[in-house]
Structure formats: structure tokens, C-alpha cells
Amino acid sequence: MAELLAVPFKKSSDVDIVKPLKNLIQNTYSGSESTEDFSDAINELSRLRTAAIWKVFEKSSLDVLYSYYDQLVSLESKIPPQEVQIPFKWKDAFDKGSIFGGRMSLTISSLAYERMCILFNIAAMQSAIAAQQPLDTEESLKLAAKLLQQAAGIFTYLKGNIMLAVHQETTPDLNPDTLNALSQLMLAQAQEVIAYKCIRDEMKESMVAKVCAQCEELFTDALRSMQKDALKNLWERDWLSTISTKQAIFRGLTQYYQAQVCRANKSVGEEIARLQVASAELRAAPSGAGGGRVGDVAARAARQLAAAQRDNDFIYHERVPEPRALDPVPRAPVAKPLAPPPRWGAAADLWERLLPAAVHAALAASGARRAELVGAEINQLRDATQLLNSILASLNLPACIESESGGGLPESIRSKARAVREAGGLPALAQLMADLPDLLQRNRDILNEADRMLREEAEADAALRQQFGARWARTPSDQLTEAFRANSAKYAQIIDNAVRADAIVQQKFQQHKEVSADTLRARAAAVVWRAWATWARRRYLRGLWARLPARHRSPACAAWPPAEPARLLARTDALLRRLHHRWRCLLYRRAFDQTARNRMREKVTASVLFRERKATYARSVAHPFVGDYVRLRASGAWRRGLGAGAADRYVVFADVVGKVSRGGARVSRCLAVVSTGALLLLEARSLRLKRRVPAHTVYRLSLSPYADDLLVVHVRACGAAESSTEELSQCSSREPLDAPGCLFGSEGGWRRRGDVVLRTCHVLELATKLFLVVQNAVGAPPHVNIAAEFEANFGQQLVTVAFHASGGGVGGVGGAGGGRFNFGSRAFVIE
């Protein structure tokens, strides 16, 4: 009987993959800038497939399968899999058809299906190689265990991915239940090989017993899966009986080695019970099982059972338990399914230079986007170039700008004039002008003679070539004299340019050689003026950046260095000043994020409300609005919802303030929180809500013009017809019809709890943020009343709040202020 069971191979048929793959690659990458020819790679892939499906019984076939599978994985990741039009046909591995081949097959045009079938054959080949290994050497046992674990991992992978690759009903061998049964069988056989290795290496009896117990469990699971009604007709005739026999063998081995543990522990009764089970199970093992080791263990079990029974009868007299009463042996799962690696072999990737289709499409899109961005940048550069040219034109630039320190002509002009005088002056120039025609004619004669010689040589070469035909093997004349003819054309162009330059020079010479002293002085004055103006502009442009103030990048900086002389540079200076201001405004806007915009909006709002109206505004400008002064947003209690509902969770302002009570003008500490929907007054420590003022009920904010820190928030009465249950809960009693701020009559009106009077050192920030919150909630801002005296409603009565200046403020406004609260006949003062 064979020791290990091998899975049969799937069989395929030849199919042309060369032409479809060539067409697919050419169509997919037709627009690529560097299109390579992958004909050699496609032909090599076709050769690998032929070897993989027809040479499955050779020793090197596993490497061939590995190589073909690796190339399939690489190709599948590069080309669109849904566009592959190659009909791959594979037959069922377990089909018991006629001798001419299996009858059941499945044909799908999919690289993924081809890859799954090749992976199935890799697992089958691994099981076949493992089954061929003798189980009596160290190397063969290790190789068999490794291959069987890899096969188990492949079948597990196929079970989870076959339906994703096929998307239709498969042949029985690729059914997930079949693949699960094969994975369990391969894992059980891997554990079996490991168990034989443990026995061969004479490991501790307890460890061998655990390994054998796990092997018995795995064969039990495999037998249960393979005996399902839908699968049991697939297997070879002796598979189920072989697995059942191995299950019994490892049950016996487990009990035998556990009996050795009991023997060492002097548990004679348990030892006899386990040896009885081992002898009964191992007696039916075929000869040669496990390399002959199972038969040896069966003989030893019989001998030890007789000896143990004899010793127990005469010495120990222990009770022998029933087999079903024995404790189960712990299991040691050593064998594990090994997942298939990304690449099996080390062969070179045939498709290494083939870009994935998605990457190719992304490159095409990026090329179009790049062209669009480059075009936009070029347009911007053209506009900037035109602007720069206009500025340079206004400055009479570019010109020959040279530095001169004494205010006279530049040194280069003086040196050139001196060189002309030393060379002979005007007569020498006239003589050179007279020599120009002769020199020109001489150069033209030399060049014409060279051209004539080249033409004669070319005509002679052509005549000889026509006369002798193929026997005239000399290099053609046009190739030999190509460099000479190119130089001749270049020198002809140089002579033409020189003629035009000579004409201009002669014209200027004739124009200026007969000039009077007055004309020279007038022209010299103009030249000097232009040189001086150029120098002044150059000095202005070079020194402008160094003369800018330190805060010149700030849009608020109005300083600008004066331009001298103003008559010459006024227009340029004004233009550069505007450009510089636009540039620094652009930098400021780029550095301005949304948070900074919100803060600026708050500061601008504060400026509109309190500038020249509140004494403390001037010193508050330099201090940014912080908002959350007590870090309420980071509080765990606040995030859990303590103190506010979900609508009030976002904090706009939070600080510990003083609240003026209604009864005696007493100031108590509390936490004032402004959310996006309400003003909340909380206990400072426990965050218990004391009062919630909805934003739509705030209709006025009152402050004094002095340097005090009091804010009065005027609140409308809550009406039953317009208020929610939460808002009505803030009202505790009825209010008379003629109460200030009541919107309804005595039947439907509610008594107000009164206005809120707060005292805080951040009074302007609190008023500004409350102003914006009410404006966002209602759609209209509340009225901001800044006066030295106004009224506040404290629920039961109206209170007159009067302020007075103290401490030497200008006009009674700049000093510190105090508030006086008049409650009828009582008055309280808050300094």
C-alpha cells in the first residue's frame, strides 16, 4: 500500500496564446512614447505553457510549473484581465471517463482561471513528489513535510479565491468543498510525516503522543469531509479505506506512546488500558506502514501489554479503566498550511518592462495635464515678460550700463576712443574703409575657387561611377566632401553678413565724419545725458531693495524710499510701488488660512462696533482673540456632553466671568460659554448648567464708553408659540402684560428671568463673538448700545445702570469706569 496519497493532475489542451497577446498589448499600449516588442516574451510564455501541461511527469516539471505560474501572475498584473480573449480549456482531475481523456471540462477566457488551474497542478505535483519520498531518511521526511504543507496552503488559497476568478460553476475538482477536503488531506499527511520523523528521532514519548493525537484528529476531519454525499464518488477506490486505516494507526500510536508516559509515572492500570487500545488498532496496520516502524511499534505494544498485565496481576493489582474513560491526549498541531508565495522561482520576469495598464493610463493623463500646466505657465511667463519689457522700455533699458564714479563718460568709451586715436584716428579709419572692397573680392574669389574644385571632383566621380558601374567601389564624393561643402556654405553666409555690416558702418562713418564742433558738443550733451540718466536709473534699481523699510512685506506699511531724481524716476517709482504693494498683498493672502480669516472677521467686527466708542478698544487691538481661555474643548467632561447638549458642543468663547445677581448686585463667579446657538452659564467646577440663553432671544448688547468690563445682554421674554420645550424651561413664572420685552399678552406670555449682566476682562471679545453668533443664528445682528446710562430688566423690576468715569480719562471717557445699579430706593456700585 502506498504510504502517501497523491492528487491527480488537471489536463489541458494546446491553445494559441501568441497572436491574441500580441494584439492585446499593441492595442493597449499603442499610444505609448516607447513601444517595445514583446514577441520574445510571448513566445517564451507559450513554450512554458506547453512544457507545463505536457511534461508533468518529469523530475523538473515542478520548476516548469513554478516558472509558468510566476509569468502568469506578472502578466495578469500588467494587462487588463477582462480583455484577454484566449479560451483556456481544462478537464476535471477526478473525472473517470474513457481512456481517451476526461469528458468533463470547462473553457473560460481568463488568465485568472488559467492561473488557478496551474496552481492546482502545482499542489498535485507537490503531493506526487512527496508520495515518492522514502520515509526512512532525514532529508526525505523534511522534503515531504514541506511539500505537503505547501500543497495544503495552495488548496486553502484556491478554496477562498476560485469563485472570485471564475464567476461561474466550476468542475468538481475546483469546487470549494473538494478543495477544502484536499487541503485537510494534505495537512493530515504532513502531520503524518512529522509524526514519523518524531518516532525516528526518538523524541520524548509525551511529545510523540501529542503529535500522533493531532494526526488522528486531522485524518478524522479529512475523512468526514471526503465522505460527504457530493464528494465521495470523486475519489479513487482505496482512498477512503486508506484514510480510515491511517486514522486507526495514529489512534494506536497515540495510545502506545501515552502508555509509555503512564509507565514512567507508575500508572499501571492506565498503561494497560492504553496498550490494549494500541494493540487492537495497530494489529490491523498493513506491513511496511511508516517505513516499517508501525509494525515494530505493534510488536512492542503486544509485548509490553503482556508484561504489564503480568506485573499488575502479581504485584500492583490496579484497576484497569475502560477505554472510553481514559483522558484524551493533548494535541500538538505542528503542521500548518503554507500560503503560496508571490513568486515561486527565481527566473527573470518576462514582463518587467511592461507597464501596468492603469499606470499607462495614468501616464497618459499626467502627460495631458502636464501639457496643460506647461501651457498655462508659458502664458503667465509671456504676460510677465510683456510687463517687464514695458517697464524696461520706460527706463530706456536694456542698454550698455556701466558704472562710473566721476560723473563723466564711462571708462570703456574712453578706452575705445583712445585706441582709435592711437591706431591713426580718422585717416586710418578712412583707409580701412577704402580697403574693404578689395578684401571682400579676394575672399569671394577664394571661396568661389573652392566651390569650383568641389564641383569638378563630384562631376568626375559621377562620370567614373557611371562608366565602371559596380567596379567603382570608392566612397561617393558627396559623402567625402560633405564637411567641405558645409564649411563653404557657412563662410558664404559669413561674407553676406559682413557685407551688410560693412554697409551700416560705412553709412555711419560717412554721416559723422564731417561734423562741426557745435554739433559734436550738442550730440555729446545728449550722449552724456543719456549715460547719466542710465546711470541714475541703474543706481535706483540696484539700491531700491536695500532701501526698503524693515516691515515692507506688511500690507499695512506705508513707508517707501524716495526716488531721486524725482523728475526722471517719478513714473517708474509709482509703478514699482504699486507692483510691490500687489506682491506683498498676494503673499499676505497666501499665508491667510480659514482660522486667520475668522479671527480677522472678528477683529474687523470689533473695530466697526467699538472704535472711538469704547475706551478699552485701543489697547485691545494688539491682542488676538483667543476664544477658549479655559481650554474647555479639551475637557473630557465637556466632550462627554456634561453641561451642554449636542447643539451647543462647539465652543466659540469660554472664560470664567463674574455674573451680577438680580437681588443685591452681588458678583458671583461662573463659566460663560458662547456656542453657535446660545449663551451658557455653567458652574465653574462641575459644569452644571445654570442658565441657557438661546441666541435668537438676545436682541441688544449694552456697554459703557468707559474703561470698565461690564456687559449687559438683553434677553426677550420666551413665548409659548415660538419657543421650544428646552427654551421654555428657562422661564420659571408668568410675567405681567406690560413687562418690558414681553411679546405676548397675559394669557400666553411667560415671565422673563431677566437680562444677563457679566463682568469680564475680555468684554470686547465676548461682545463681538456674541454679536456674530446672534447674527448667524437670526440673520440680523443685535443692537449694540454704548451709553453712560441705560436700563436692564432683572425679572421683577427695571434697573437703571449708570456709569461714571474715574481716574483722569480724557473727557471723562478714558479713565476706569464703574457701574451704579439703582433698585428703586436702593443703589449698588460696582467699581
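Next protein, fold it too.
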Amino acid sequence: MVETEKSLSPANLKKYTDEGRLPLNVKREIIPCLVESSVGCQENEELNGVTSAMLHEAFWLSPICESIFILCSELKPKPLQLSRAEIVLKEFYTFFKNDQKITELFAEMSFIQTDVEKMNASMCSDQLINIPDIVSNVLEKTSNEKWDNLQGDKYFKRLFEAVVVLIKTNPLFGIKKVDFSVLSYFISKSCKRAKCVKFVLSPLVHYVTNLDPDDYVARRSLWQLSANCPKEYLDTFVTSILKVCSSWKNVSSILGDLVIQCEICRHILFTKLVSDRYFEDDQLICNLLGYFLGPETSRLEIFDLFLTEVCKVWADPFVVLYVPYEQLLYINKIAALGIQKHPSPAEWGKRCSHRIMEGITIYLKSSVERVRVMGSYVGQLLCNAINKGAKSKLDLPKTSTTDHFIKQIDQLVKLYETQESIAPPDSKSSTNEDNKQGTSHEKNSIDENTKVTSKQNLDSDDDDDDDDDFTPYDMSNDTPQIKFQKSAYLQDIINGLSSSPSSDSAAKHTAADLFEQTIIDAKDIILRSDQVAIDEMCLDVAKVLMHVEDKYATPEFETLRVNALGSILQRQPKKVSGFLIDMFYEANFSIRHRLDILQAIRMAAAELSELKVDTSEDSRSNLDKGGNMEQDWRATVDQRVLAKTKFFHKVKPKKKIITENKFSQVCGSFFFPFLAKYDQPIATLRLLNEDSQVFSNLLYTMGIVLHYSVNTPCAMKMAKELIGDFCQQHLNHADACVRQSVWFCALVALTAVNSAELILADESLTDGFMKYRIAAAYVRENDPHSECRLLAEQFLVNLNEVVKQVSSG
């Protein structure tokens, strides 16, 4: 054995066992040594038994957080012996079979007194969440069913059961101080990592369903879990709770007054769950509205603001025209149920009556029948709820679409009312209901088995016929039948990308094929389109491309969408660049949208600045035939000489025609509007704080735009703005990618000017480059990031060459 292991004999370990705690420094030394000894003495059964017993006992002694952290580190080195992995996984497996120990682990993570304990608890929660990935990486291709409980959603469900037990026993308000942040971090991040959130959160939902309404201690602990949820995982946590809960009362029990206390939660419920996403489940709509309209009166004022935001989205003409039908149906359902259940709709209607009337006129003008019917019926509900005395009635057509939509609204209202009338169940009644449900599931499974066997018997009778005697057709030259007309115009792009599938399966496949073909052909259609049509419809096409979703899992969808955005930006740079930059600073766009905008800007700048060389023979003749251009006598002479010249080889020399740099006229509109708003605070975009990845991408894009603007009138002004406060403030940024982008911009600015006379003529440029020179000398020696050091060194080399030009001149 190892010397440290000898110092901890079974007798000494017994002393620590009686105390119930193993010192931290001893645990960090002894557990890796015991694992190593267990690997080395597997052939000696007696010695192996003693070592494994000591390892098991050392693992169970508190602090358990440190034990998990140490054992996870034992699984990370590569290559890893399978025997070593088996020993470590065996300890994990025995630990996760013991419910009491898992509960003690979470209690240990909750009772925190110092910052060091909080850091250890957060590291332990990260290791707990990463254990399924660690196990799958260790086992790799070997399939071992013995470790299934340590992988997938079964693992997370077992941990959630331990959290529920911890809340049930209520040690959270005991003697020790409780920190809910680690538990909230674990729950929210587990919701993001789990594949089936409903299965993982089922223990928590079952506990909340059977919770006594008078148990305020348990409710307060649940509210604390929600209130301490990290901001980056709050969206996933709130959406998962709304999806999984079977009643809006459960949502209210878990979230509490989070929408009042947290502005980010308000943004999620008001914007993301209304205008950015849609859900087909009616239960989520009931949970969302029931959370606002619950017995707690504190959320009713917030509900007025929520319904106003819904009405604003409902009456938006762009939403009616370009949003998919499923999302439009989702918005109309929220508006219909919200106005019917509002406690005082007349007072709310005074503020939003003009929006309602505008929305009704927009829906009546729609050319799609089901959209027109849907908007008219919801508008009628809104008007009747506001004016209780005189009820208005629109003349709706009596068709199947009208009846189907009215039936959907009635089912939604009944679902909400049934949940409103249900009392919280007792524990005895809940167990009886579970038993009844179990027997009904067994009966259904028996009936399904009998149906399957009967179908198999019928199939076996059909298989008796032998079709081998028939000669097959020659289908080698067959082509797939196209069920739709291929897109050829800009309006076809708008229609193809904004169309929504119907319930019919055949029509759904056709819509998917049309969508895929449209997004593939969008770039070519835009580049081939007439300039008059581009000027008229460029903004409409850009809006559709920005808001389109990957509804049918199209391969390389993001790349195709960005290519189409870059092509429309290339055809109409000024209009589209202004629109995209405004969208970049909008609040209701994701990080993915903002990065796509920057990529489209870079692509368009590269395409517009390219000096295209046309070597085709028809290009000269096409230029000469133009009615507005005078025929050049030199071109005529060159053509006649070329026609009379005899060549001894077959290839004739091709005339090169070089076009102008189109980017020089519009480079300013790609650059300066970005700098006007980058430091303005937005709720969902904080470039100077946590969204450093987007900010570094923005800096890189500005450098690329300046690179393609070399030898243009704006280049000097752009270089001065770029190396000014925009980049100087971030030379010592904490994120390495931002520092790397700053030095890239400094290099591009130096190469864009690249003249000693111009630099010396402008004092701001001279002072700016001297500041960068001092900073580069420090970065070259002390920056931990290698790319930053290389860029700083290259900047010094280029600047020294410019200084040599001054000294030589």
C-alpha cells in the first residue's frame, strides 16, 4: 500500500467513523490512493476486500460533496483503465441506491455558512449534473446495463426525488442557515440537460399536487427555490414548469410572486411565451393565464399589462401576415381565454379599444379564410367582454373552419374551468386514484395486445401470395414528381417560407418540400431578381428571413438563411443594412439571430467589395448593344482586329472587364449605425457585460467592414472611430475573445491607413496608435492568451515599419 494509506489504518478510520466526519485534507489524499490500491491488488482477494471497504467507508463520511468531486476527477484522465472505472462507478452506484445519503448530500449543499462551502457546493452540483456525460464517456461504446441508473433521465429523476424528500422533512428552517441558490442552480440546469422534462420533474409535480394548502413552510421553500434560480437558466425553468404542471394551481405554488419580483421572468412570460414561441398544448395556456388569475390578488395588476401586450401582438399587421398559422392560433387562444376570465374587462378595454378595432380590420382584410374567421371571432369576444350592455355580433360564415375554431375555444374554456373547480386532493384519495389508473392501464394494454396479435395473423395470411413471378418495371430513368411549382420570384419566397402545414399528412409533406426548396433557392432567386422588385420588396423578404423558423428540420437551415440574408443585403445595401442593424438592437431577438445578422453583414461586405472580372465573350457584345451607352471606337477596332487575326492555337484571348468597387458607396451604412447604440442598455442584450461573445463578434465584424473599405473616402474616419473609445476601453477585458477582437481591429485600422504622412497629419490617430503601442508591449509579455500575444506582436511589427518610413523620409 501507499504511505498515506498506511497512516490511515482501519483503526484510525474507525475513529473518524465514530466522529462522522473525515477531515478535508485527509479525504483529498486518501481517496485517490485507495482507488489506486484497489486497482493494483485486484488479484489478492483479501487485500482487495480490505481496501474496497476502506474506500467505501471513506466515501460515505462527510463532507460527501468533496467525495463526489474527487471521484469524478478520477474518471477524467485519458486513457482510463476499465478496472479503475469499474471501482469508481461501483461507489457511485451504491451511493445513488441510498435515498437517505442523497438527501443528506443535498442538505449538506443547502446548509452553507462560508463562501468556501458555497463554492464547493456549486462545484459539486456541477459534477452531479455532469455525471451522466462522464459515465457515457468512460464506457464509450461498451453497453453495460448495470450503469443505466447513472445515465439519462432516470438519474435526474432520482435526484429530484431526494430534493422533494428534503423539502418534505422541512429541515430548511431548522437551526442552520439555508442557501437556496445551489439547489435552484441544480434544478434549473437539470431541466436544461434532461431530455424528457416531464419525466424528470414528475416527483416535484406529484408532491405539489398533493400539498396541503395550509402548509406555508413548504410553499415558502418552493418559492425560495424559484426566486434563487440563476438568470441564465430561468427561461428553461419557467417554461418547463408551465409545460409539466397539470394545473395552474401547481404553477402558482412553485413560482409564487416571481413575476412581480423578477423583471427577467416578466420578460419571459410577456414576450418570449407570447410573440417569440408557440405551443400546441392547451394546458400550457391554462397554466399561463391561471398563474396570473389565481386567488392571489397581487398578480392582477401584472395581468392587465400582460393582456395589453397580448392585444398588441394580436393586432400587429406583421404578425397576421407573416407569422405561421399555429403561432397565430396560439396568440388568439390566449387573447380569447384571457378576456373571458378577466375580472374587470370594461376598465381594461378603455385603454385598448383602439387596438382591438385595428386588429379586427386587419383580420377582416386577410385573404386566408381560417385567419379571417379566427380574428373575427376573437375580436367579437373582446368587444362583447368590454361592452357588456350592447353585444356586437359579426356575420361569420357557417363553415367547418368556423365550427372547428369555436369548438377549440370552448374546449379551452372548459379545461380552465374544470381546473378552477377542482379542490386539492387528500393523500388517501390520491392513492385510490393511482390504483384505479393502474388497473385501467393494465386493461388497455391487454386489449392492445389482443389487437396486435389479430393483426399479425391477418398479415401472415397475406404473406402467402408469392409475387416473385411478376417481372419488375424498369424504373432506372424515373424522376421524382414535383407536387408544387418551384419558386421564381420574391413573392414566392415570402409565401413559401411563411406557409403553414395543414392537418392532412399529404399536404404536410408537400408544405415541407416547398419550404425546403424555397430556402435552398432563395439566394439564387434574390440575385436574379429585377432591381425594381428588389427595391420594392427587399424589406419584406428580410423580415421573413429574420423571423422564419426551422419547422421541418431542414439540413443546413441556418447557413441557407444567412446566405439569403447576405444576398438581399448585397442587392439593396442601404435599406436592408439599416433594418438589420435596428433588429440587432431589438429586445425580442435571440443571440443566434444577432450572430446571423453580423455574419450576413460580413458576407455582403466581402461580395460588394470584390472586383469581379468578367471573362465571357458575350459580355463585350452585350455592353456594345446597350441603347444608353455610346459605342467605344476602341472596342470596335479591337473586335475587328480580333476577328481578322489568325491564331495557331484554339484558345482565343479573353477580354477582361473589371467592375467598380460597389462597397465604397455604402460602407458607412454598414459601420456607423452599429456604433451609435452599442452602449445603450437593453433587457435582453448587454454587450458590455455578460454578452461578451456577441460583443467580440461585433468588434470582429467592424474590423472586417473597415478591411473591405480600404481606399475609400470613409476609411480614415472609420479607423479613427474604431481605435478610439470603442476599442480602447476594452483592451483589458476579462474575456479573451474580446481582447483578441480589439487587437484585430487595431491591426486592420493600421493597415487601412498604412501611411506615415496620414497618421502624423491627424493628432487623434497619432495619439491613438501610441496608446496601442504601449498596451501592445505589455500584452506581448503578460497576456495569458496566445492569440492576443501574437496579434499584439504583429501590431508592433507593422507600427515599427510605419515609424521607419517616417525616419527614412
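About the second fold: The longest helix spans residues 427-462.
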